[in-house]
Design a protein that fits this description.
single chain, 221 residues, alpha/beta, six-stranded parallel β-sheet, two-stranded antiparallel ribbon, 13% strand, globular
């Protein structure tokens, strides 16, 4: 990619990209499994599905569950994540400075996340970050990653083409979603999946922090 390429929109994943929520997600998954009488999977195995819709994530970990058990697990997870978990969840260092900087540059900002709409609404209110985004998409009104429907919906709303936007994420699901629509993608190694996994999807950059991302984006917007 030529360094001079200029993007008109930046699309972010949420968990593991802007928000350091991995530990709270895994805690909620393990708690829900325990409450539903399912085997509690190890931390590293449990975290691999972060980024998928909740139903797809549960089935990724427990592929033989019937629908009633998936619903029960989903409800237990949501209850724990939103109301019961005492695991701290904070934005990664530099998150708000990055969003403010991009907003001041007049770039369109969006979220494409595997979170539920209820979960995203709650965390955007809690952090105050909702003011920075022109549009957000969850699997509730779209499709789970790596299906690119969320990105297509965002592009349609912004009246942009795929080459005018860039996807920022920390999982293979983010990278594959963008790849499926021929959108440039930047991988962040501070989240769920390791850099060598992310690099298989040919991101235009692989960076270690939001502060590095801020500097990189200033040359590409």
């Amino acid at each position: 990619m030529q360094k001079s390429k200029q993007y008109k929109a930046v699309i972010f994943d949420w968990d593991g990209t802007l928000m350091n929520s991995e530990a709270r997600i895994v805690d909620s998954i393990q708690t829900a499994a325990r409450e539903c009488g399912l085997p509690v999977l190890p931390y590293d195995e449990s975290k691999q599905i972060i980024g998928l819709s909740l139903e797809n994530a549960i089935l990724g970990l427990y592929p033989n569950l019937d629908q009633s058990k998936v619903v029960a697990m989903s409800e237990a997870y949501t209850q724990c994540f939103l109301e019961e978990s005492n695991i701290e969840m904070v934005p990664f260092d530099g998150a708000e400075a990055l969003l403010l900087n991009l907003k001041q540059q007049g770039v369109k900002l969006a979220i494409a996340t595997g979170k539920s709409r209820k979960g995203l609404t709650a965390v955007l209110a809690e952090t105050g970050f909702g003011i920075y985004f022109d549009m957000t998409r969850t699997p509730v009104e779209s499709a789970s990653k790596p299906d690119p429907l969320m990105l297509s919906q965002i592009l349609q709303e912004f009246n942009l083409t795929a080459d005018q936007a860039v996807m920022i994420g920390d999982t293979s699901f983010d990278m594959e979603m963008a790849q499926n629509i021929n959108m440039d993608r930047v991988a962040l190694s501070h989240g769920v999946h390791q850099a060598e996994v992310l690099n298989e999807y040919e991101p235009v950059a692989t960076l270690d922090s939001l502060n590095e991302l801020n500097m990189w984006l200033m040359n590409h917007i």
